[in-house]
């Protein structure tokens, strides 16, 4: 297990720890989903959730080596299902979810950040969707909660990343701080929420979720259909094998 859990003073912290590039395998994605859903029944002990990484990067996306090692379509199916469960658990969590991004935040990392309530980032943090180069599609729904629609289209077509500072100008990143200040700042923000009345905060989150204009999980599921189509055509495997050959 490459995800570690601590619960202290109303803050549940999930720390991803998977060197060398912070790729997220299916077991860990399911673990994050399971843990966050379990917090829904712990209103007093878990008032806010913080997702962070112990590595130099936040998340490099799904573990492509794991995906390509599995027979047939098993790898892409497991990756897509585990990501869907994780993103849905984060976005529909009863308590607010804060994401603390250091370094690269790619693919499913963008899905995590785009599903969350609050994003804090280091000055070195970058966000991107290299899905086209990796033979897949997905998390553009979540990217559109971080950047304007036309910017999201450019990022998806070109696999170009953006900086945390640019996301700050859009208002989707709350604070950009020096790397050495990220952990302290993230916990300070989490504590500000945890200090509030948990019933009121949960009601506030439920109200915000209820007035969002579109269903994030349904949008992501629509995207995944194209990933399955590319995989059945063989294009997905070709792109992923080429990526690993690099």
Short summary of the structure?
By secondary structure, this protein is an alpha/beta fold. The chain is 50% helix and 17% strand.
Could you list some keywords that capture this structure?
6-stranded mixed beta sheet, alpha/beta, about 50% helix, globular, 2-enoyl-CoA Hydratase, Chain A, domain 1
Description of the structure:
The chain is an alpha/beta fold and 246 residues long. 50% of the residues lie in helices and 17% in strands. It has one domain: Alpha-Beta Complex (2-enoyl-CoA Hydratase, Chain A, domain 1), CATH 3.90.226.10. The chain contains eleven helices and eleven strands. Strands 1-2-4-6-8-11 form a six-stranded mixed beta sheet, with helices on both faces. Strands 7-9-10 form a three-stranded mixed beta sheet. It has a two-stranded parallel ribbon with strand order 3-5. A hairpin with a 2-residue loop joins strand 1 and strand 2 (11-16). The chain is globular, with a radius of gyration of 17 Å. The model has no long low-confidence stretch (mean pLDDT 94).
Set out the fold topology.
Blueprint: E1 3-8, E2 11-16, E3 23-24, H1 26-39, E4 48-53, E5 61-62, H2 64-69, H3 74-91, E6 97-101, E7 104-106, H4 108-115, E8 118-122, E9 126-128, H5 140-143, H6 149-158, E10 162-163, H7 164-170, E11 175-177, H8 182-194, H9 198-211, H10 216-232, H11 235-245
Parallel strand pairs: 2-4, 3-5, 4-6, 6-8, 7-9, 8-11
Antiparallel strand pairs: 1-2, 9-10
Helix pairs in contact: 1-3, 3-4, 3-10
